């Protein structure tokens, strides 16, 4: 019996240290500062991709680090971890299969079907969907070209106007600022379809759309998103070229003029959190900023959709200072998180970005807040690391329903605080 017990323990210890040479995602925990330094070195000096946190500078003792390790780096990385007694477990064993499943274009679902919105779609298909949606809803949906990307791809936003009430306020939602966060564009498509389908049938969505126009930018980073489909699924930044460096791309969520490139961002073009040459140096961030500047009097609520980690965040992320209406934002996020927990059982953390995660200057939500749009939120959708950026299509539905629940809770509160809502007629 004792022999069997020892064998069982050894077998279970070995599960975290497989000799398989697949692309894998490891969850690693450093117990000492020396181990932290080793892990920072591994994530920068070896062919790996840091999933969580965003940058090596955020790695701390006792924090869980999620690291994508290609097969050709597997032995070297695991040998270094074992040499320094750094504990790890394998989160995802064969990411190649997951990626192939997500990019396999076998869907023949019509765009009007619910199953269409439970799949990931290429950039070309999203562009087609944008035009299809506008053509099929000519009286309520308008396509707006707000700018173009570094590689000259269009930045299309949809404007949803479900009634002709004058002087309406507006809600802005952007998705896909980080290329590898595929659940974000999937949510933008889901939200548009949900709004058009349930207006007049669902009390909350009807109240929101009777009192607000809605702007939706499905893919803020089209160059990066395209690159994740064709070349590197783990790509985060845009695809701009930096002078004097062979490294490509700027983190668009460090490129806005909110404590730009202070602690929590990097001047190094090779960094995942490279802030760019100057605020709004990137055509993508400048296009969004220009549009919001010109609509700041009507846009009351700003939402930017990210993944992963299940969080509802609000300003500030660029400083530990609290915003003037911190308590209002906290109560809104809390109610949204409670609604998600009540209906779907998932826990979402909530709070000001800098205090809930870490300092992240140059973010769109902080810049928007400083512009004067005082209800500004960042959603980090599913999950907490089981699949991370490779969330399977089978999880899209629940992730989007959770996010819609949060949007409704927050938007209704914003309407309550900023205007007298119209009386909506709807059917149940």
TrEMBL record:
<keyword id="KW-0862">Zinc</keyword>
<protein>
    <recommendedName>
        <fullName>Peptidase M14 domain-containing protein</fullName>
    </recommendedName>
</protein>
<keyword id="KW-0378">Hydrolase</keyword>
<dbReference type="InterPro" id="IPR033849">
    <property type="entry name" value="CPB2"/>
</dbReference>
<dbReference type="GO" id="GO:0006508">
    <property type="term" value="P:proteolysis"/>
</dbReference>
<dbReference type="Pfam" id="PF00246">
    <property type="entry name" value="Peptidase_M14"/>
</dbReference>
<dbReference type="GO" id="GO:0008270">
    <property type="term" value="F:zinc ion binding"/>
</dbReference>
<keyword id="KW-0479">Metal-binding</keyword>
<keyword id="KW-0732">Signal</keyword>
<feature type="domain" description="Peptidase M14">
    <location>
        <begin position="119"/>
        <end position="414"/>
    </location>
</feature>
<dbReference type="GO" id="GO:0005615">
    <property type="term" value="C:extracellular space"/>
</dbReference>
<feature type="active site" description="Proton donor/acceptor">
    <location>
        <position position="380"/>
    </location>
</feature>
<comment type="similarity">
    <text>Belongs to the peptidase M14 family.</text>
</comment>
<feature type="signal peptide">
    <location>
        <begin position="1"/>
        <end position="18"/>
    </location>
</feature>
<dbReference type="InterPro" id="IPR057247">
    <property type="entry name" value="CARBOXYPEPT_ZN_2"/>
</dbReference>
<dbReference type="Pfam" id="PF02244">
    <property type="entry name" value="Propep_M14"/>
</dbReference>
<dbReference type="InterPro" id="IPR003146">
    <property type="entry name" value="M14A_act_pep"/>
</dbReference>
<dbReference type="InterPro" id="IPR036990">
    <property type="entry name" value="M14A-like_propep"/>
</dbReference>
<keyword id="KW-0121">Carboxypeptidase</keyword>
<keyword id="KW-0482">Metalloprotease</keyword>
<dbReference type="GO" id="GO:0004181">
    <property type="term" value="F:metallocarboxypeptidase activity"/>
</dbReference>
<keyword id="KW-0645">Protease</keyword>
<keyword id="KW-1015">Disulfide bond</keyword>
<dbReference type="GO" id="GO:0042730">
    <property type="term" value="P:fibrinolysis"/>
</dbReference>
<dbReference type="InterPro" id="IPR000834">
    <property type="entry name" value="Peptidase_M14"/>
</dbReference>
